[in-house]
Design brief:
mainly alpha, two-stranded antiparallel ribbon
């Protein structure tokens, strides 16, 4: 069982998820304040109160409410708690819409992801949107109370003041991360900061994609001086390297977001992370996705899970259980995954398996193929499609997690291999040193091929197409694929097809409007400031 989880080691509070301030979303938008059991003055009366709310802000990426996973309601109303988990919602939007994942279940909206026929009234679209904006609202609420003036009026000084000022920078990072996901997924969401009235009569205004890009960029640069140096914060908390990595991601996709390339800036910030000297590749790829991955020197920013203290049916609990058959047989033994049983949900299309020219030599190419067919004749038949072996609830030494239902494994939101590949792509797009890019790519591949020479590529093999494929091989099921395919103009077009793309067995092109998700119809009905994205 891990000893460093966000509520104890990170914030030093001795808290569990259920002992947080009880917070409930009153609306899907930014115009409502979360409802607290205690009033503002009693919550923020001292440094411990600020730490508790900051813990709630961090936990918003991991759990769905303060009353446990089986409570009647969570933070977001009108949607199943497990489905509304931040990581699960993000993962579904980023992976189920692509060649890397299909899902068996027929719950409302689930098949819409892969068929690309989602609508503005879909409950899962609303859940994704609400979870992101709820996180922004939590951040705004904390930041509104964490001004220097408020801290002074409450007599917070000395080390307590310094700690809260650092937490303030971290919460600004978390808000930037949530807004980055809103930028990437929805494009033009409603926008508010701590300077806007929360719970007032005026609904939030709508931002533009370019304006939001600039805001995120400015926020990440503004907090740099106040964040901990790379690797110097407690595990699970943001530091400078996390902000640099997010900036690199922002710049790599700048042409999609603003129409202007920023590849040199991407390379600059990626290299800052690399040159910090703090991070190194985990020697064995599989150990990045085990219960003790909190010891990895590769993970730059995780979403922290603990089977006893952050219980949710989303996150890595979902990613582990859903990739195991619901029927134990000679091909499927849930105990090998450290769980009590599978949910029989997620697999992949042939495209991912075919990305690996040598499945025997490449350590990343681990799939359950026995009892499974390569082809996905039916999305709702679990045995159609090979199943990647990625997340497990066991340690690197094979010890099971602390709970057989809820998983201990952390989700690696940012890690070094991604940074290496971002630098390489930016260099190939004219923003960096291509010789250095080759070195970085071969570091990633050396790990994958157990340092065998067969893993190395030459400068002639290092192309943009190679990088896209290598990103899939390295980062599959880590919520990057949709963004990557859009950047390469292969998400909606007929140039690259996969099984059931657009709801057709052989795949088909879909409207470019599908590169953004719609703003939920329910939000448009209550906020006249919003205009729907094209095509919806």
């Amino acid at each position: 069982m891990k000893t460093s989880y966000i509520f104890r080691r990170t914030l030093g509070l001795g808290l569990v998820a259920g002992s947080m301030l009880a917070v409930t979303s009153c609306n899907d938008d930014l115009d409502r304040v979360p409802t607290y059991d205690l009033n503002t003055e009693s919550v923020y009366k001292d440094a411990e109160g600020y730490q508790r709310v900051a813990a709630k802000v961090y936990s918003g990426f991991a759990v769905t409410g303060g009353q446990g996973p089986d409570a009647a309601t969570g933070d977001i109303l009108g949607i199943d708690q497990g489905t509304s988990d931040y990581v699960r919602s993000l993962w579904s939007a980023q992976e189920l819409t692509t060649d890397e994942a299909v899902i068996q279940w027929g719950d409302p909206g689930v098949q819409d992801w892969h068929n690309m026929n989602w609508t503005s009234s879909g409950v899962l679209i609303r859940g994704l949107y609400s979870r992101i904006l709820y996180e922004v609202t939590l951040c705004n609420g904390f930041l509104a109370q964490a001004t220097d003036a408020n801290l002074s009026s409450r007599g917070i000084t000395g080390a307590d003041l310094t700690n809260i000022q650092r937490l303030r920078a971290e919460v600004r990072f978390l808000r930037a991360l949530a807004y980055y996901h809103a930028l990437d997924l929805f494009g033009n969401p409603p926008f508010a900061t701590e300077n806007d009235e929360i719970g007032g009569t005026t609904p939030p205004r709508q931002t533009t994609r370019t304006e939001l890009f600039t805001y995120i960029e400015s926020e990440l640069k503004a907090i740099d001086a106040d964040l901990a140096a790379p690797g110097q914060n407690l595990y699970g908390r943001a530091d400078k390297a996390a902000a640099w990595t997010l900036l690199a991601k922002l710049y790599l996709n700048a042409k999609v977001y603003t129409g202007t390339e920023r590849n040199a800036d991407c390379a600059t910030y990626a290299k800052r992370v690399i040159d910090s000297g703090v991070y190194s590749l985990t020697p064995q790829y599989k150990n990045l996705f085990r219960t003790d991955n909190n010891t990895s020197k590769e993970i730059i920013f995780p979403i922290v899970y603990d089977g006893k203290r952050t219980q949710t049916y989303g996150g890595t609990t979902f990613l582990t259980h859903a990739a195991v058959s619901g029927t134990a047989n000679s091909f499927w033994n849930p105990a090998r995954y450290g769980i009590d049983g599978g949910w029989g949900g997620i697999r992949t299309t042939p495209r991912l398996y075919q990305q690996f020219p040598d499945t025997a030599a490449d350590a990343r190419a681990k799939f359950v193929t026995g009892g499974q067919s390569l082809e996905v004749t039916s999305q709702t038949t679990f045995t159609d499609g090979y199943v990647p072996i990625k997340f497990k609830n066991i340690s690197s030494t094979g010890a099971p997690g602390s709970d057989l239902v809820f998983v201990d494994t952390d989700f690696p939101m940012f890690r070094l291999a991604d940074v290496y590949l971002m630098y390489a792509e930016a260099a190939l797009r004219g923003g960096g040193d291509q010789a250095l890019a080759l070195t970085y790519v071969n570091r990633v591949r050396a790990r994958a091929f157990n340092n065998a020479p067969a893993g190395n590529i030459t400068s002639g093999q290092l192309t943009l197409d190679f990088i896209l494929n290598e990103r899939s091989r390295e980062l599959y099921w880590e919520a990057t694929r949709r963004t990557d395919l859009i950047r390469y103009e292969r998400f909606t077009t007929g140039d690259y097809l996969w099984a059931w793309k657009g709801g057709v067995a052989g795949g088909r092109a879909v409207s470019d409007d599908r590169r953004l998700f719609p703003l939920p119809a329910a939000d448009l009905s209550v906020n006249p400031n919003l205009t729907q994205n094209p095509g919806y």
